[in-house]
Amino acid sequence: MKLVKIALIGALYTALTMAIAPLAYGTVQFRISEALTLLPLFSPLGIWGVTFGCFLSNLLGFLLGTNPIGLIDAVCGTLATLIAALITHRIGQIPFSSLSQSKARLTRALLAPIPVVVSNGLIVGLELALVFGGNPGESLPYIWAFQGISVAAGEIVVCYTLGMLLTFALYRADLYKRLFSETRTA
């Protein structure tokens, strides 16, 4: 059952990425699928689901010609997603015992996108800077900063809008417990 849930998350991530493929790749990225990167907040299954989905999306994008970065993105972009997912999962485990349940959930929800924004901004930003380079006279740190800010901006928009909506929907009526529970239904 765990593998099925991981595969479903990965498939949904891939479908959402491919649905807007021209916006999902390149120097300016806007992936609605990145809203799913907050799922590790609720379960380790989310870690592997979004990581698998990112790898598959980047690989398919390369094979279909929509991902100009190619196989490098399948490795580096996936690494950025895995790092962010692992940290996001740890945020979900912080008890915040001095806060009420609703305030603890709000705090986790507000913190959860930060690893996604930072990891993708740094790693994918560097990847883009190295691949697309810019003018020979420009130095790598400036290109990296520009590309990183561009990627981070897209992550902020998606994670703090669609990602928040998804997070609060899953918190509502403890839906995340039913989705990620290990019990089987007949």
TrEMBL record:
Keywords: Membrane, Transmembrane, Transmembrane helix. Pfam families: QueT. The chain crosses the membrane at residues 6-26, 38-63, 109-132, 144-171. This is QueT transporter family protein.
